[in-house]
Amino acid sequence: MSLGSRGRTAFASGAVLSTSLALFFALAVGAIMFACLGADPLRAYAVMARGALCSGYALGELLVKAAPLILTGLAVALARTMLLWNIGCEGQFVMGATASAGFALYLAPDWPAAALLPATVLVGAAGGALWALIPAGLKNRFRVSEILSSLLLNYVAILYMEHLYYGPWRNPQGFGFPGTATLPQAAWLPTLPGSRAHLGLVLGLGLAAALFVALRRTRWGYEVRVMGLAPKAAAYAGMNLPRQTLTVMALSGALAGLAGMGEVCGVQHLLQDGLAQGYGYQGIIAAFLGRLNPLGVVLAALLLAAVMVGGQGLQVELGLPSSISVILTAALLFGFLAAEGLKGLGPALKTRAAQGGG
Amino acid sequence: MPRSRPPQAPDRTRPVLSCRGVSKAFGEVRANQDIDLDLYPGRVHALVGENGAGKSTLLSILSGRLRPDSGRIEIRGRAVRQLSPARAMAAGLGMVHQRFMLVDSLSVAENLALGAKGVRSPDIRRLAKRYGLDVDPDRMVLDLSMGERQRVEILKILCRDAETLFLDEPTSVLTEPEIRSLFRVLDRLRADGRAILFVTHKLAEISGLADEVSVLRRGRMAARNLPADRDPRDLARLMFGRDTAKAPERQPPSPGRVVIEVESLSGRDSHGREAFRDVSFDLRKGEILALLGVAGNGQAELVQCLTGLARPASGRIRFAGRAGDLAYVPEDRYLTGSVADMTLAENMLLTSGPGSGRLLDLGRARRMAQQAIDEYGISDAHPETRARELSGGNLQKLVLARELARETPLVVLEQPTQGLDLRSSLQVRSAIAGHREASAVLLVTGDTAEALGLADRVAVMFRGRISGTLEAVRGDPGQAETLGRLMAGLGPEAQA
Question: N- or C-end of chain A: fewer Cβ atoms within 10 A?
């Protein structure tokens, strides 16, 4: 066996190891929590599994949650591949949703479905992309950390959206409730018959595959990876870091914007309270559990969605708070980080042993 | 409270620190071999040697940061086992690093208190006054000049009661007046009975300052405890040797058109300080020009300007070719010249440029990698091997193969054999020599033998200027000496 393939096998088995350690840690934390709340951990997990997987409805709900998570996870993973922190997916999600809704409600309400739906999808992507270009531009021009600017812009985006549906965009027939009118049906994303799972999921899966190929097989993806793995080598090779920062942040924002579009056009069909429920932040967890690999992000998003949907079952069947799923999600991330840390420790210990012998 | 006091009645005839047979190897590179050294109280001991001679390794060992593979270290006649930075400090050894280790956003007094608890401004003022270390304890380190920062570093180890001071290339960051003031400080510290180890590669500096001098060459002590008034030309010979390179035979140059012409170029380093000044040369196709010098004399910044990675402050570069159409083998092959976590095949694509299409030609990359592996005999490697698994020598061969394959009119090589074992060095050198007909080659090196063995002309850089240029003549041992003197800054008489 050549050195190369051995290296890759070690890499892959490392991924499996740290992900299973993360899972084990999360399950252990959850078990302790259930025990503290006076519930039988095994029964609680059984309820969660049933709630997430064992009915057509449950699977549909799982896919509804997975669709935006895949997209925001890809958004974070793509940016992180070139060492950019896009913490602003929540804001880009909101701006994508707002742009789509505004377009379908006010700019092109009379367009035929064949034109309106694709246009609304693109407008959603553009909304997210433009919002993400702000931190990218600030970073290029003034060296502002994109971590802070993208995070702070989340609050701006949410307040702006609220301003719109509390104010100028509020539905006049809405009995005073905050929220826009319902989008024209021509702008709704088709759903899987019998469930709420919508076309956004297919979009996410397709984009994950496209991103996977683009990062490995195109000159563009190669540059993104070199910039992430060896910034000095990227400069040496004459790669244009500022331009790539703009491109990658715009694409990342577009992915998050598509997630927002999916929630508006596929699930809610209007802008209202509860639209921004943290998919942007959970995308960070999906990206890291998926080890920044687009296909890994899909699996991680499905796992997170299962935990969220399963958590709802806890409330219904056992009277436990459904927010337990949030804690489980956090435990997953911590478990993953701990496993990564342990993995780094392995070679260090070996080196130390070798030095001690010398 | 002020803890620092002159060592009590030091016995000046017995060494305060001595090492015997100290050796340290990194893989195949023997950085230190059988080093003996004695430092006496009240004496300034100069340690000279070119880059890679092992000075830094020895200093790291003496300050407890590296553990030697073998050998003995004694402090005041008592053997110390497992010297650690903390133990070295407790035993009165103090190190002034070449790169200052200060917290920029804290005041001088706060920085000193970090190192020695309970030190307050009045104590610092008293200590500073006694040794002429003029610096205001209440100023922020941020606002200090390089010379002032160095004084803070010296104060820091004096606050810890150091009796033995190690100074690593202390003049490299200083201006002329700052250097004179540093020497006055060292004079007072010596008069106080402290032992000082002064590491430098500038021979001109030591005659007025040091009491004795030792010369490190290729990891060994070439001479030990010589009187410091020894003829600097002897020292230069000891430092750089007089051996000519075992380079491959080659034809006399048949220079073609001028490929690059540099006219009174000046430039700055990343801190905005002048790094090189008034550099002029031209280079033709079919010619190898060596830019010889000890690292830190402006070569790195000059190369950055030539390769378009930095802008010169003034002057002109005329390049007969499309901008960026030059191959460049950078000094840092691990982080700059390659991507450690990519495969060898992917690494072959690094500098093939955006003009190579939208899709990666991985098939071509694999063929290129395989060709480099076969041509240079890179063992245990495959195009899908990750670059981090290669040894330094093999990685360098890969980078060199990639760059030479680009067939550019100009090739810039920066320290191409630094840290390589003999076999790899010879392979790399013969590849460079074999490429001479194809393009103009600029070889930046600190190795005199390499420069004389490969180049047609050798230009020496010292303190940012070209201090002399000579045509390389095969088998003339006098040239190595001349170059050694120029590299050590021994003035124009050497050019005769």
Answer: N
Interface of B with A in 388-427 (CB under 8 A): 389
Q: Which of B307, B254, B263 is nearest to B284 (CA)?
A: B254
Chain A residue numbers with beta carbons less than 8 Å from the beta carbon of B357 are 219
A307 CB-side CA count, 13 A: 24
The per-residue b/e assignment along A71-103, b for 16 or more CB within 10 angstroms, e otherwise, is bbbbbbbbbbbbebbbbbbbbbbbbbbbbbbbb
| CB within 8 Å: B389 and A7 | yes
Residues of B in contact with A225 (CB under 8 A): 339, 342
CA distance B268 to A148: 32
Residues B201 and B215: their CA atoms lie apart, in Å, by 10
For residue A180, the SS3 value is coil
For the record, the structure tokens of A196 come out as: 């709420």
Distance from C-alpha of A92 to C-alpha of A156, rounded to nearest angstrom: 11
Tell me whether residues A4 and B385 touch, CB distance under 8 A: yes
Which chain A residues are within 8 Å of B270, Cβ to Cβ?
none
Residue of A220, A223, A226 best to disrupt the B interface, most CBs of B under 10 A = A226
Using CB atoms, pick whichever of B324, B350, B380 lies closest to residue A226: B350
- A vs B: CB pairs below 8 A: 80
Set out the domains of chain A in order of their start, with CATH numbers. 48-336 (1.10.3470)
Q: What is the pLDDT of residues A74-113, one digit of tens each?
A: 999 999 999 999 999 999 999 999 999 999 999 998 999 8
pLDDT for residue A357: 34
The H or E element that residue B239 is part of is helix B232-240
Q: Which residues of A touch B398 (CB under 8 A)?
A: none
Q: Does B386 touch chain A (CB under 8 A)?
A: yes
Q: Do A4 and B380 touch (CB under 8 A)?
A: no
Select from A4, A18, A19, A6 the least CA-distant residue to A346. Answer: A18
pLDDT given at position B317: 93
Q: Within a 10 A sphere around the Cβ of A352, how many other Cβ atoms? A: 10
| For chain B, counts of helices (H) and of strands (E) | 15, 19
Q: What is the pLDDT along chain A (358 residues), one digit of tens a residue?
A: 333 344 444 455 666 777 788 888 888 988 998 999 888 999 999 999 998 888 888 899 999 999 999 999 999 999 999 999 999 999 999 999 999 999 999 999 899 989 999 999 999 999 999 999 999 999 999 999 999 999 999 999 999 999 999 999 999 888 888 999 999 999 999 998 888 899 999 999 999 999 999 999 999 999 999 999 999 999 999 899 999 999 999 999 999 999 999 999 999 999 999 898 899 999 999 999 998 999 999 999 999 999 999 988 888 888 888 788 888 888 888 888 888 777 665 555 544 444 433 2
Task: At A247, list the tokens.
Answer: 């491109």
Q: Domains plus CATH for chain B? A: 17-240 (3.40.50.300), 243-325+408-496 (3.40.50.300), 340-406 (no CATH)
Residue A345 burial by Cβ neighbours in a 10 Å radius (0-12, 13-18, 19+): exposed
Q: A232 vs B362: CB contact, 8 Å cut-off?
A: no
Looking at the complex, does the CB of residue B330 fall below 8 Å from at least one CB of chain A?
Answer: yes
Angle at B12 between CA B9 and CA B18, to 5 degrees: 120
A229/B360 CB distance under 8 A: no
